[in-house]
Structures are given as structure tokens and as C-alpha cells.
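Example A, followed by Example B.
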Amino acid sequence: MAVEPQILGRAVKAAQYRQHRALDSRLASVGSTLAQWDALRAIARTPGASARELAAATFQSEQAFGTLAGRLVALGQVDRRPGHGRRFEHHLTPDGERVLKAGHEVADSVLEQCFEGLAETERETLLGLLRKLEERPEAEGGR
């Protein structure tokens, strides 16, 4: 029996939505949101990155990331420094590193719960299939 692509797409989205809700709810306990923590994580992976690079890494528009980065600067978790030309480089502050570390602990716990219904071999298979999809070139024109 063939699996309809829309049903498969909705199942992936439902699993993602469940994870995001759980992460967002639990990250509040460490003073963060999922979007903020994900931005901190991206900055930690590539210190000095531009807003454009970080927007791509966090699946956001440049405008949305700029707004989020401004919030993180106001919270004292991110430092923006002038770079070449109009570029600003982003770095974590000690408070940003603290929130990031606490967020990692929360995320590990939440994601372990999300995937606890899968055996290790099933997790490996799922990861392999998702990576296979991710490696494909993006479809042009919605196809």
C-alpha cells in the first residue's frame, strides 16, 4: 500500500510540533525559548557569524533573526561586534553560555522522552532516512 506524501508530511510535522511544544515549555524553566536557545546554539557553533549565516542555520529569515538577536543582546546573552563593512559578528556572553548549557540539559531530557518509544535501531534508521532527505537538492518551483 502506497503512503500518500501529504499524510507522511503531516506525520513529520506533527512529530516536530510535539517536540517544539515540549522544548519551548521546558526551556522556559531556564529563561529561554526554543527560538532563543536555537540561536544561542548556532552562535556557539560559529562564533563571529553574521546574521545572514545564523538566519540560515536557524531556518529563519534575516529579518526574523535580526529581531531575535536584538532580543538576545537586550537580555545580555549575545554580544554583537562590528565586522567587515556593514557586517556584525555575533558572540555569546557568559550569561548566554550559561543559558545554552542549561538548555542542552533540558533538550537532552525532552528529546529522550520524545524518542523513547523507538528502539535504538529504529532511531538509527529514522536518522538515516531524514539525512537522506536532507541531502537531496531542494525542489524547484515547489516540486
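Example B, a separate protein, is given below in the same form.
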Amino acid sequence: MRTTICLAMAMLALIASGADAAVDWQAELQRCRSLRENVAPLLQAGEGISAVGRSSKSVRRCIWIQRMAVRKKIPGAEAW
């Protein structure tokens, strides 16, 4: 019981501290660019981005990173 309460408190502290502020945007965008180069052949073969995204957690994360970076106007951000 105590462990559950401690874990819940830690999660709340993380959420409240603004875990989003800890994102290294340039590193994430670079990672997403290299991932996009690897996914491009699938997209050119006719697979939709949503189908590719469902098959890979990293692709879904990159889509989220790209959307947030565009929304926050981070230099180098581009929409997929």
C-alpha cells in the first residue's frame, strides 16, 4: 500500500514539474529526421503514416514530437 502511494506521489510530482520542459528538442528532431528517412520507403510503397505509426512506438513518438515542436515554433520543426 505504501509503495503504491509513493509511486502515485512521484508520478504526480513528475506531471506537475512540467516533464515537457525536459525535452531536448533538437536531439529529438534529429532522431525523428533519421527515422523519417528509414520510414520513407514504406510511405512511398503506399503505406499510410497512420499504418506505419501503429506498427512502431518510435514513429508515434516522432509524430507527437513533430506536432509539439511545430506548435511551440521550435527552429527546425516541420510537419509530417
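On Example B: The radius of gyration is 16 Å.
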